[in-house]
Amino acid sequence: MKPACGFLLAALLLAAGRAEAHNMFGEGNDFLNGLAHPFISLPHMLATVGLGLLAGRHGGAAVTRYIGGYLGALVVGLACATFSIGFAAENPILVGALLLGLALALDRPLTVPVLLPAVVAIGLLMGFDFAAETAGSKAGLNFGTGVALYFLFLVSLGFAESFGKRDWQRIGLRILGSWMAASALLALAFGIFAAKT
Amino acid sequence: MPVGKVISKAAFILFAASALAEAHTGEGLAGGFGAGILHPISGLDHVVAMVAVGLWGAFLGKPALWILPVVFPLVMALGGVLGVAGVPVPAVETGIALSGIVLGVLVALAARLPLAAAGAIVAVFAIFHGHAHGTELPNAANALAYSIGFVIATGILHLGGIAFGALEKFPQGKLAVRGLGVVIALVGAGFLFGLL
């Protein structure tokens, strides 16, 4: 099951290459379009995967709190998005992805008081950002997005839990964390400095 | 093979193939990712230096084996930030060429330096490589997709160097690794003197 988790995660990540429009499945297929959304919004995908990997790597006995916390935050955030309550949160999400990647790279255990607020914050930001991305968003679209984001979180968490047992596996997660942090840092820089030119 | 594994592997292959098939568009997510993946591997000067980092890490052994591939992308990203921000870094192309020469020579001579020194050398060169990537972002590309692409490509080159460096365990392998170090240094010199 462990290698299958890894392949599934990689397949989902690479699926971003296929999803090039907000309405991949055409008008009227809100739920399916919502399912596809995290795979066309790379900052959302990066932060969610980072969060899942970190929670899986260091969660331990508290992992159920992270699973519940992320679900609750997503529900609240996306509910707000349904009523167009939100703001453009791509940069905060990228900052989150950067910090999550660094935490993975450093491989330092994170306590519940540190990780749980991060889980909740990222979940809320996802929802608020979605409101800004799709003004007048519909319940079906948001529900699909929530399902996809939560699924991505759970797959990443499961992958890290099962994959982080041996030395070389933990090293692999650290390398992945550094890649995530580096990508997020560069994207932030592109977004900030390119916007000024 | 369990059904779950078959499905996951098939999904991986299908999605990877589709992502690669669209890499030529140059725009959007796929184009950005494709452009990012291609950038480090389309420049021989980048390729030899990235492979040399992996080779040298493999030669130095743990913890350099994994510290260098963890630190390099992060410092490279800092260099990229400088490039995007328009902060000039002097003699970037010279620095990139020198990275090939210096790292190649270190591998060829089987130089064992303290971890801090090895990390510092690699970090300095990472700035030059990152700056070059940062200034060369294609206009139409999705920035995050491009970043992910070239970070992944860089990491894969490191891993290639580490895999080749594993040959150090064998007597003939030692020769092969040092020989590759010589080749890398020569390629770096070729770029430095404008021959490549």
Describe the structure.
The complex is a heterodimer of chains A (197) and B (196). Chain A has 197 residues and is mainly alpha-helical. In chain A, helix 1 packs across helix 7, helix 3 packs parallel to helix 5 and helix 3 packs antiparallel against helix 8. The longest helix of chain A is centred in the C-terminal third of the chain and has 30 residues. Chain A is globular. About 6% of the residues of chain A have low confidence. Chain B has 196 residues and is mainly α. In chain B, helix 4 runs parallel beside helix 6 and helix 5 runs antiparallel to helix 6. The radius of gyration of chain B is 18 Å and the shape is globular. The interface between A and B is large, with 41 and 46 residues.
Topology at a glance:
The complex is a heterodimer of chains A (197) and B (196).
Chain A: H1 2-14, H2 30-36, H3 42-58, H4 63-82, H5 90-106, H6 112-133, H7 139-163, H8 167-196
Helix pairs in contact in A: 1-7, 2-7, 3-5, 3-6, 3-7, 3-8, 4-6, 4-7, 5-6, 5-8
Chain B: H1 3-21, H2 28-41, H3 44-60, H4 64-85, H5 92-108, H6 115-135, H7 143-165, H8 171-192
Helix pairs in contact in B: 2-7, 3-4, 3-5, 3-7, 3-8, 4-6, 5-6, 5-8
Radius of gyration of chain A: 16 Å
Largest interface: A-B, 41 and 46 residues
Main β sheet profile of chain B: none
Low-confidence residue ranges of chain B: 6-26
The structural class of chain B is mainly alpha
Structure at a glance:
By secondary structure, chain A is mostly helical. Chain A has helices at residues 2-14, 30-36, 42-58, 63-82, 90-106, 112-133, 139-163, 167-196. In chain A, helix 3 packs antiparallel against helix 6 (112-133).
